[in-house]
Amino acid sequence: MKTYNFIYSVIFPLILFRSLYKALRYGEKLSRILEKFSFYRGDKSSKPVILVHAVSVGEVLASRKFVEEILKKFPNHQVLITCTTQTGSATIKKLYGNSVLHQYLPYDLNFCIKRFLKIWEPQITFILETEIWPNLIHLLNKQKRKVFLVNGRMSEKSFKRYKLILPILGGVFSKLDYTICQGARDQNRFIELGINREKIKRDYSFKFDSILLAEGKNKFQADKNENKIILCASTHEPEEKILVEAFEMLGNEETILVIAPRHPERVSKIFRDIKKNGTAPSLFSKNEFKIDYSKKINLVDEIGYLEDLFSLADVAFIGGSLIPRGGQNFLEALKFSLPISSGKSFYNFQEIGEDLIDMNILEVANTSEEIKNIWDKQLTFASDRMSEKTDGYLKERQGASLRVFENLPL
Description:
Blueprint: H1 2-25, H2 30-35, E1 49-53, H3 57-62, H4 64-73, E2 78-83, H5 86-96, E3 101-104, H6 110-120, E4 122-128, H7 134-142, E5 146-152, H8 156-165, E6 178-181, H9 184-192, E7 200-202, E8 228-235, H10 239-250, E9 255-261, H11 267-276, E10 282-283, E11 297-299, H12 306-312, E12 315-318, H13 331-335, E13 340-342, H14 350-358, E14 362-364, H15 368-380, H16 386-396, H17 400-407
Parallel strand pairs: 1-2, 1-4, 2-3, 4-5, 5-6, 6-7, 8-9, 8-12, 9-11, 10-11, 12-13, 13-14
């Protein structure tokens, strides 16, 4: 760990500068920034603590049923949920209120993690997906406190990175008490990185359990009119420009484009960029959080409304995929049986993406013209059997977040 700690301390000023810049730019309070150095001023627990670390909003949403099950199974414990992003933090507060404790996970500096563990003394720690924090895992292992990686995934890109720096990580993967991962590829990669074959098992993704099926499908249909809606969800810069170009080429007067950026704080810039080209978008918050059918383009500038929007959409594009970011979650679109389009970079959801391509639910493209052609086809030839295909696929894969408790040596 000495080499890792030395290198981390050398690059830490850059990490700190980037974090402070983003925090100050988007109005983060000083007390929240200090949490990343283990200066915590909120409520503390008199009960034993179970720590759940979910890096951002996607992991927070995916782990909801898992956390709810922890609250049921461990009524004499207090659950602490940590994350590293503002959107993740806002989602935790919205979902759980005062039923859990929450703070940012500190930087993986030795003294920050030591202070954090001294404050909370977690008896059990659950780490979601690919959040490998060497000092956190090392110190939990040293203190003989159980630490589990659940809903684990290891993309090819992450695997190559970890493989490269593995010699300086102090055998961190072997220090996990048990791992439950999402698929065979993830399992093989984790084993190659040092996890004991006897301490890893694969199951489906927790994200399947965060999806409620048919009972919610028509909840928001009263707000829909005859216009077709293309929802572009979780977009990243510069995807919006490409998507607007595709929409303008589509030239369909009865279609509305709704863009929901992954980070809503970017909306003001997106608004200006679109307006420069002669179109004034409607802001979701300025129209009572409803789609403005009088405008061809709507921008969603608040979090927490994606489910409503998916329920109204006719076609969905999933962002983070036209750039090398690995894509975003396809499953919310599946819940509402939507035909899906995406860029070619979806390695974060590789197996699910390949399944959906095989089922003719997902089509991929890289240019605005290719996207336009896909949208034109999807809007014109919607399959009557789409709901049957998507519901069956989702139901078959549910239950992983509950099976965790059968498989872990708690």
